[in-house]
Structure formats: structure tokens, C-alpha cells
């Protein structure tokens, strides 16, 4: 009973903040409801006052991670809004250990982080593309961002464990080239949109 009363004293924000700390310190595999309850000195059942299950907790974390995608200043060149939004989302995902995995799994279940796709769609539309094209392109861009950052975070973890030698070559992402590779991928999508628009105009 004491654990339940203590759980009531903790707010939903307290629980989410504690979960983010565990995520950042130890990664998603160690973020269990039991571990979270122990960090708050409550029984696991007390957490369900705020989150009915782990999936809804992860959805809340995903929303918080995506919300930290601080808008970058767009330039004057073509595609600048799209590029700025993609990099802002990348920065937000990289700010938390396993951030891409949390957001990706939540999106797959349709539970949260919808603002990630909406933000990208708004940016693509701001670059002058039709809203229907922007919505479809945002989905493709979101998949690219999630996949790329997930790969980056896996490499960072492997490198920290010494699993991947710094001099290793191949098709993997290196720390120094990951941002350039990311920009190249985003520009490919922007270029494809521009080419598609040009074909429509010419037709």
C-alpha cells in the first residue's frame, strides 16, 4: 500500500523524467517497469496510475524526444526548410541513447511521435511542394531519418565497446562522415521531389 501511495505522489512528469534518465544512462533494454519503479522507490504497480503499460510509457518518451527537435534556421537555397527539419529531428534522436529505436517502435505501433512526420511535412511544404506530395515525401524522409540515426547510434555503442575498430572500412557509417552521409541522403530526396515537380510542369 505504501508503494501505491508513493506512486500517487509522483507525477506523470516525474515518471517520464526518470524513464528518460534510465534510457540515457543504460539504454532501452534496461528500461523495465521494475527498474523504473525501483528508481522512484515505489512498487511497479504504482506506475500504472500514470501509464497503463510500457508501450504508453515509451510513447510518452518518444513524444518528449521528438519535441526537442529545435528548429534550425532555414537558408535561402532550395530545400532548406526540409534539410533544417531533418537535421533537427536527427539531433533530437541522437540526444538520447537508443532515441531512434524508441521513436521508431512507437511510430510502428501508432501510439505517438506523430509530430515527427508532421514537422517534416510542414517543412517540405514550406519549400514550395504541394501538400499531398509533402505528406508522402515526409513518410519517406522519416523512414530515412529513423534508419540512418538508428545505424549511427548502433555504431556509437559498438565503438564505445571496442567492437568496431576506428580504422575499419567498408560500408558502415564512420563518426566523421555520418553527418555528411545524412545530408547526402536528405538532398537525394529533395532532388527527387524537384525533378518530379519539373516533369509535371513540363508535361
List the keywords.
about 200 residues; mainly alpha; about 70% helix; single chain
* Poorly predicted regions: none
Largest sheet: none
What is the string of helix and strand elements?
HHHHHHHHH
Radius of gyration: 20 Å
Proportion of beta-strand residues: under 5%
Helical content class:
55-70%
Distance between the termini: 71 Å
Number of helices: 9
SSE diagram, text form:
Blueprint: H1 2-9, H2 12-26, H3 33-39, H4 54-67, H5 80-94, H6 99-109, H7 114-126, H8 131-160, H9 178-202
Helix pairs in contact: 4-6, 5-7, 5-8, 5-9, 6-8, 7-8, 8-9
Write structural notes for this entry.
The structure is a single chain. This protein is an all-alpha fold and 203 residues long. It has nine helices and no strands. It has helices spanning 2-9, 12-26, 33-39, 54-67, 80-94, 99-109, 114-126, 131-160, 178-202. Helix 5 runs antiparallel to helix 7 (114-126). The model has no long low-confidence stretch (mean pLDDT 86).
What can be said about this structure in brief?
With 203 residues, the chain is mostly helical. The chain has helices spanning 2-9, 12-26, 33-39, 54-67, 80-94, 99-109, 114-126, 131-160, 178-202. The longest helix is centred in the C-terminal third of the chain and has 30 residues, at 131-160.
Amino acid at each position: 500500500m505504501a508503494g501505491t501511495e508513493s506512486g500517487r505522489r509522483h507525477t506523470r512528469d516525474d515518471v517520464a523524467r526518470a524513464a528518460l534518465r534510465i534510457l540515457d544512462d543504460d539504454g532501452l533494454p534496461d528500461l523495465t517497469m521494475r527498474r523504473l519503479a525501483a528508481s522512484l522507490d515505489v512498487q511497479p504497480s504504482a506506475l500504472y496510475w500514470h501509464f497503463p503499460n510500457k508501450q504508453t510509457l515509451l510513447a510518452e518518451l518518444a513524444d518528449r524526444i521528438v519535441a526537442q527537435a529545435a528548429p534550425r534556421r532555414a537558408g535561402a537555397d532550395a530545400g532548406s526548410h526540409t534539410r533544417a527539419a531533418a537535421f533537427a529531428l536527427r539531433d533530437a534522436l541522437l540526444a538520447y541513447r537508443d532515441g531512434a529505436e524508441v521513436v521508431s517502435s512507437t511510430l510502428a505501433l501508432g501510439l505517438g511521435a506523430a509530430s515527427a512526420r508532421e514537422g517534416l511535412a510542414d517543412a517540405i511544404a514550406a519549400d514550395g511542394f504541394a501538400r499531398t506530395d509533402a505528406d508522402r515525401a515526409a513518410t519517406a524522409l522519416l523512414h530515412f531519418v529513423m534508419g540512418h540515426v538508428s545505424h549511427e547510434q548502433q555504431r556509437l555503442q559498438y565503438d564505445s565497446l571496442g567492437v568496431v575498430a576506428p580504422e575499419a572500412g567498408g560500408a558502415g557509417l564512420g563518426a566523421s562522415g555520418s553527418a555528411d552521409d545524412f545530408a547526402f541522403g536528405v538532398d537525394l530526396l529533395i532532388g527527387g521531389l524537384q525533378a518530379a515537380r519539373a516533369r509535371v510542369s513540363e508535361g
